């Protein structure tokens, strides 16, 4: 689901929706639509958008439009966050953050 998701959004499958609903904890779920899932074909998928009674403010997800290059938005956001830290980044740090290349993000250490 990670490869078909969007920044700041929680993308879930029908089986996850079924599990969350069975817990009867007030999870708020909206349909995303049919999505091609690796190894599973096309399935209905959903966004987990909240939980009743959860009042903590969350960052607003960026607006994503069809054809929008969201990796560029994520790259700019990541650079902004990293500029605010005093920590020196190393290649090992990028590995800890996950494979940025797989996400379509290219950042050279000297660009940060």
TrEMBL record:
Q: What keywords does the record list, in alphabetical order?
A: Lyase, Membrane, Nucleotide-binding, Transmembrane, Transmembrane helix
The Gene Ontology biological process annotation of the record reads: intracellular signal transduction; receptor guanylyl cyclase signaling pathway
Q: Please give one Pfam family short name.
A: Guanylate_cyc
Q: Organism's domain of life?
A: Eukaryota
Q: Which GO terms describe its molecular function?
A: adenylate cyclase activity; guanylate cyclase activity; nucleotide binding; peptide receptor activity
Please tell me one Gene Ontology term that the record gives under cellular component: plasma membrane
Task: Write out the annotated subcellular location.
Answer: Membrane
Domain named Guanylate cyclase: residues: 1-49
Its protein name is Retinal guanylyl cyclase 2
Task: State the organism of origin.
Answer: Limosa lapponica baueri
């Amino acid at each position: 689901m990670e490869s078909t998701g969007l920044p700041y959004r929680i993308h879930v499958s029908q089986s996850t929706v079924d599990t969350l609903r069975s817990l009867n904890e007030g999870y708020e779920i909206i349909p995303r639509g049919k999505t091609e899932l690796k190894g599973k074909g096309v399935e209905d998928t959903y966004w987990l958008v909240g939980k009743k009674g959860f009042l903590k403010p969350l960052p607003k997800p960026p607006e994503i439009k069809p054809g929008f290059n969201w990796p560029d938005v994520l790259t700019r956001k990541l650079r902004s966050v990293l500029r605010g830290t005093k920590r020196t980044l190393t290649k090992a740090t990028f590995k800890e953050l996950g494979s940025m290349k797989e996400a379509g993000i290219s950042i050279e250490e000297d660009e940060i």
